[in-house]
Amino acid sequence: MPAHADSIPPAVTSLALFALGLWALRGAQGRRGLLLASALLLTVAADYRVYSSDRWFNAQPGNVDAQRDPEGMRGMNRIAYDALVANRNYRIVCDERASPYSTDLRFYNLASPQGFDPFLPAEYRRRIEQWVPFRTNRMFFVDVKNEQMLRRLGVRYVITHEGTSSQPFLAKSADFQRIGPNDSFYQVYEYLRAVPPYGWEDGRTGDVRVAAWKPERREFLVESEQPGRFTFVEQFYPGWRATVDGQPVAIERWDSTFQAIEVPAGAHRVRFLFRPTSVELGAAISLAALVGLAFVIAADFRARRSLRSGSGVPAAQLEFEAADDGAARHQHTLNFLVRGRGKV
Questions:
Q1: What is the predicted pLDDT for the residue at 335?
Q2: Cis peptide bond upstream of 100, omega within 30
Q3: CB neighbours of 184 closer than 8 A, spacing ≥ 6?
Q4: CATH 2.60.40 at 198-275, yes or no
Q5: Is pTM, for the whole model, over 0.90?
Q6: Higher pLDDT, 107 or 145
């Protein structure tokens, strides 16, 4: 998607085409008008789907999408990349001096402890600052030597390359293992003592399986012989909702900044869903606007059909409404009186 001044021409062109469609809709009638209205609504829906919050964006000049490898990650061997994708429920750390940056991982549906949320809860910042300082108002780098930090944040992989400060440590540590051959620029190391970012608070051996893993929805199939707290290493943030077997349950704050819920004994389906009220309100407003637009289009269509058929409207009155100047209006008035009453 173009950025800076290059983004102006496409935006102006889109607005001009949409305005032209609205202007043409004014004079359209019958099936042509209905098709044109449908095309405009379809255009709005497509534009929302492509350029709404689902659209990846950047603030760099040029087409960044063209720089991506559709089959993997440039500079990384395929074995390492496939391991990252197959275990996307774990988080990935990017070395301080290694690219890609943590925010770039979103292009591959991968996650990092930094995330890409424009809002940073104060509790999460304070929790991170117990381990490392922030470099900017929201950027920090994970200490790959800090076992507690790695395990608490659900980190399993580290992306680095030769020449960085942490690469020699990762290569020598018994807790890390390089994935794939050393034949690419990026090197991916797996943390062998990784802990998933979810599970039972007391560390019991109850069964936990991932049923769905999407940015806004995480589902788990859990089974345990006794009730307990199920923890979820995601920021405690307004908009997150939880259910157990479809029934809503309260989300509690865990470890000052993460989430936890109470789950009874037995086999259950646990879901965490991010759906803030603002999204539902926006969807309701959009739906009401579409219904209102459809009603206006239908009313206009009926009115135009009624005028064309002349039902309920005298021909003399139609001639009067079509008059262009004062003299013609006066003449049509006289004709109307003569026809209606038989005299002037």
A1: 61
A2: yes
A3: 75, 76, 77, 80
A4: yes
A5: no
A6: 145
